Amino acid sequence: MNEQANMSKSEAIKENAFLAGLKNGRPQCGLWCSLPNPDIIELFSYSKPDWIMLDLEHTSGAIHQLADIERAAASADTPLIVRVPSLNGDDIKRALDCGIQSLFIPQIKSAREVADAISFSKYPPNGIRGVAGTTRASRFGHWGKSKKALENEIAIIVQIETTEAVENVEKILATPGLSGIFIGPADLSAALGHMDNPNHPDVLSTIETVLDAAQKAEMPIGIFATSVEAAQKWVEKGFAFVSIGQDSSMLLSETKARTSEFRKRCCPQ
Fold first, then answer.
1. What pLDDT, on the 0 to 100 scale, is given for residue 251?
2. How far is C-alpha 152 from the geometric centre of its chain's CA atoms?
3. What distance in Å separates the CA atoms of residue 33 and residue 129, rounded to the nearest whole number?
4. Spatial separation of the C-alpha atoms in residues 104 and 156, rounded to whole Å
5. How far, in Å, are 59, 81, 135 from residue 49 at the CA level?
6. Which residues make beta-bridge pairs with 243?
7. Residues sharing a CB contact under 8 Å with residue 24, sequence separation 6 or more, in sequence order
8. Residues 226, 244: Cα–Cα separation, whole Å
9. What residue ranges in the chain does DSSP mark as E strands?
10. pLDDT digit string (tens) for 169-209?
11. CA-CA distance, 169 to 160, in Å (whole number)?
12. Measured between alpha carbons, how far is 101 from 17 in angstroms, rounded to an integer?
């Protein structure tokens, strides 16, 4: 019997299912969470998306909430991705030590910044991540002798949402250790001078440019979509992972629709 088979459940390194999905080439759908609440994450998890992304860049969420939120996602075996507020070594280190295996890094502009993000996620000699023996990431020491295996399950996704990133995309894609890239249409459209118009021809052309570069580099690429119909179009073009909805937007849309329908039916003028 091999060593892996002899390991107890607490000792077996948890596979990063999101990273494995990127490698097998099957399109993955995800749900975007702006409300840092474990119940919402758990509810989303039971709908069986391929991944859930918790946004810490534009929300009230904080690092100290990550352990409970990751437990909620894990209750239905759903990979949790966290978008950290910025390219900051402390935030990346703390998120990883909380047990997060996949990170989105926003507002990346250069290959140098990508290299920094990857360095923050890897232990020496491959990076500068601090070593702690009893964090949640290592199951409080049960994985203490398997740092390399733990490191291999980390996914670093950088967001292409600035003109500088587009200009440097080929160098960004060539950075060793990068797991994938993700396009933020809202920020990209703003950067291109077309705020609130992600369907402007300039924006769509730029997205195609980035997609072409990613495909040539054989790098998984993702994008934010506002509907399943939009997501299908992106997948047909070659996107590997697509967000198909956001918690606050879906809640707002449904509550507005129901309130309006009630007033039409029950409160006629």
1. 95
2. 17
3. 27
4. 6
5. 21, 12, 27
6. 30, 224
7. none
8. 6
9. 28-33, 51-55, 80-83, 102-105, 155-160, 180-183, 221-224, 241-246
10. 999 999 999 999 999 999 999 999 999 999 999 999 999 99
11. 8
12. 9
Question: SS3 for 17?
Answer: helix
In angstroms, the CA 96 to CA 77 distance is 18
**For the segment 204-234, what is each residue's pLDDT rounded down to a tens digit?**
999 999 999 999 999 999 999 989 999 999 9
Cα torsion 79, 112, 171, 169 to 10°: value is: 60
Q: By CB neighbour count within 10 A (0-12 exposed, 13-18 middle, 19+ buried), where does 177 fall?
A: middle
Catalytic-labelled residue, pool 58, 142, 194, 200: 58
pTM of the predicted protein model: 0.90
Tell me whether residue 194 is one of the annotated catalytic residues. Answer: no
Query: Is the separation of the CB atoms in 27 and 242 below 8 Å?
Result: yes
Enter the tokens of residue 133.
Answer: 């023996």
Helix (H, G, I), strand (E, B) or coil at 121: helix
